[in-house]
Every structure is written in C-alpha cells, then in structure tokens.
C-alpha cells in the first residue's frame, strides 16, 4: 500500500499534518529550494513533539556536490532523531562523486533517502545500483524546478512503474513527489510507491511557500487509502 508524505516547514504545520493522518511528516523549507533545509533547532523541537506519533524525515538542503559537506549535514540532521534523512542528487557529479560515499552514513545506521529529479538527466538503473551498493534506505523521484510542472509532465506511468519496481527489487523504500496535485493521485496509486509526497497541493492557493491549508490537507489524505500503522513504524536507527 502507498502512504502519504506531507512536507512541512515548522512545528505548527508538523502538528497539523500529523493530526490529519500523514504517514510521514517531512521537514523541508520550500523558500530555500527544492530540498531546502529546516533549521536544526526547529527539527529538534518537532522530533521532541512528534517522535511517538508519526515518522519524520528531513532534508539537508540544496547542497553542491561536495561529499564532506553532505556527510557533515547528514550526520547533524540524523542527530536530531529523524527517521529518514533526504539527500538530493542534483547533478551527475552528485551521483558519481557523492552517492557512493554515503555508504559511511549507512554504516552508522542512518536511514538515508537519495532524491533524484525527473527534470534532470540520469540513468535510473545506474543510480538504483549505486543506492543499493551504498546501503541507503531508499530512493525518491521528485522535481527540482517547482514552477515547471508536476512529476507527470516528465515521467509517464510506465517509466514510473519501472523506476518503482526496479527500486523495490533492490530492497529500497520508494517515493514519488514533485508539484503533485490531488488529480495525480489515482495515477500514482497505480504505480504503488511506498509513499507519495506533497507540499504545493496542501497549501493555500497552491503556493508551496505559503502555509498549509487544513482543508486541502484533508482532501489529499482522503484521496489516499489509509495504510495500516504497522507499515509506518519508526525505524530502529531513530
């Protein structure tokens, strides 16, 4: 079954997303890029508030292809107690120079999610192999340019099914996101990723940098069948 991930920027939004049934509360600052990072002190506060109630992921920011900087931010983010740390693979340099090195984080028990971008070029099979070899927890397909259309503009259902199935065969948690709307949900549910991620669809006037709208959040939650709690237990690394 497929769960719902809700991207939030502060404690109020995190509490709302958790209360309305998001399976994963994803901490991300939309005004700072595709994977803008929430300040670590805010992440600590949110984890303290919600750690018994839902799973929590957090992004490390739109960092350049510098392995030392990425590793450092992964470690700092993991220390907050989040369940998953999301790392963007924004370029081929990220994939070739940084992705393999994240194996050091995996060996420390950190559940890293590699985020690929459908509006950039990459070899899906190559990346999936690299993610598996590095021992990462999962892989996600998103979009980097949030104003240029949703994930389904760049990937059709057949390519998404291929991506999800190959990732799942490699034992990876799978996620799909990228300026998705409530109308995209029936198509994406057919692909059966482990979770579907939302920000823009949850916000007032569909503006991702604005606050989350409670009614929009409820509408998205209703459109995705509820996943049994046992499928979204917290990871042992938290």
Task: Provide a descriptive summary of the structure in words.
- The protein has ten helices and eight strands.
- It has an eight-stranded parallel beta barrel with strand order 1-2-3-4-5-6-7-8, surrounded by seven helices.
- With 238 residues, it is α/β, with parallel strands linked by helices.
- The longest helix has 13 residues, at 157-169.
- The chain has one domain (3-223): Aldolase class I (TIM Barrel, Alpha-Beta Barrel).
- α1 packs parallel to α2 and α8 packs parallel to α9.
- β2 (24-27), α2 (40-50) and β3 form a beta-alpha-beta unit.
Task: Describe the secondary-structure layout.
Blueprint: E1 3-8, H1 11-19, E2 24-27, H2 40-50, E3 55-59, H3 67-78, E4 84-88, H4 92-98, H5 103-107, E5 112-117, H6 124-133, E6 138-142, H7 151-154, H8 157-169, E7 173-176, H9 185-191, E8 195-198, H10 214-223
Parallel strand pairs: 1-2, 1-8, 2-3, 3-4, 4-5, 5-6, 6-7, 7-8
Within the largest sheet, what's the order of strands? 1-2-3-4-5-6-7-8
Counted beta strands:
8
- Whole-number radius of gyration? 16 Å
CATH top level class name = Alpha Beta
Q: What is CATH's topology name?
A: TIM Barrel
- Anisotropy-based shape: globular
Distance between the termini: 23 Å
Number of structural units classed as domains = 1
**CATH architecture, please?**
Alpha-Beta Barrel
Strand content: 15-25%
Structural class: alpha/beta
Order of secondary-structure elements: EHEHEHEHHEHEHHEHEH
Report the average pLDDT across residues: 93
Largest sheet: 8 strands, parallel, barrel
Can you count the helices? 10
The CATH homologous superfamily: Aldolase class I
Regions with little confidence, pLDDT below 50 for 5+ residues = none
Q: In percent, how helical is the residue content?
A: 25-40%
